[in-house]
Each structure stands twice: as structure tokens, then as C-alpha cells.
């Protein structure tokens, strides 16, 4: 891989990181807003926990993907599976 390819890969990764931080910022602002709305309108039922939890799971998975921490079905798994299928196909055709 030459320098221009490395540069474009790095730039692409920076874009993904920026996207994750934007997602995290929007999540934080919206969740705080929902907490305020919930506590001022109907404090007897704390419904804000639902979006906090489910959207939070989405944010966690987004971060795991961006920072290449996918212990299951990550980039390494994908590369290994591609090589495995190519080897299998090569062995069947010879």
C-alpha cells in the first residue's frame, strides 16, 4: 500500500470516528432532553430509560465498529472467512 492509499484509508477512518462522535453527541443531547421532558411531565413513569437503553446499545455497537473492537464478526473474521471460502472453492475446482 503506497502513501496515497494510506492517506485515503486514514482519512476514511477519521470520517468514521467523527461520525461516531457526532452520533454520541446527538445521543447525549437527546437523552438529556428526554430525561427533562419525562421528569417534568410524568415523573411517576420513567419512560426515558427505554430510548436510553436501546439507543445506547446502538451507540456502543457503532463505537465498537469504528474503533475496530468486534470480537465477533469483525474485520478479522470477515477476512478469514473470505480466505476460507476462496480456498474451499479452489480445492473443489482442482
Coarse structural class: mainly alpha
Encode the helix/strand succession as letters: HHH
In whole angstroms, the N-to-C terminal distance is 31 Å
Question: What does the average pLDDT come to?
Answer: 91
Largest sheet: none
Shape: elongated
Question: How many strands?
Answer: 0
Q: How many whole angstroms does the radius of gyration measure?
A: 21 Å
Question: Strand share of the residues?
Answer: under 5%
**How much helix is in the residues?**
over 70%
Write down the domain tally.
1
- Contiguous low-pLDDT stretches (5 residues minimum) are none
Number of helical regions: 3
Transmembrane segments: 20-39, 45-64
Protein name: 2TM domain-containing protein
InterPro entries: 2TM_dom
Keywords: Membrane, Transmembrane, Transmembrane helix
Question: Topology, please?
Answer:
Elements: H1 3-41, H2 49-66, H3 75-93
Amino acid at each position: 500500500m503506497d502513501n496515497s492509499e494510506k492517506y485515503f484509508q486514514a482519512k476514511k477512518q477519521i470520517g468514521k470516528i467523527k461520525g461516531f462522535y457526532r452520533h454520541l453527541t446527538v445521543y447525549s443531547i437527546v437523552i438529556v432532553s428526554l430525561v427533562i421532558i419525562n421528569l417534568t411531565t410524568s415523573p411517576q413513569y420513567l419512560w426515558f430509560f427505554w430510548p436510553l437503553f436501546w439507543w445506547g446499545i446502538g451507540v456502543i455497537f457503532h463505537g465498537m465498529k469504528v474503533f475496530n473492537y468486534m470480537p465477533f464478526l469483525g474485520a478479522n473474521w470477515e477476512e478469514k472467512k473470505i480466505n476460507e471460502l476462496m480456498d474451499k472453492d479452489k480445492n473443489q475446482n482442482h
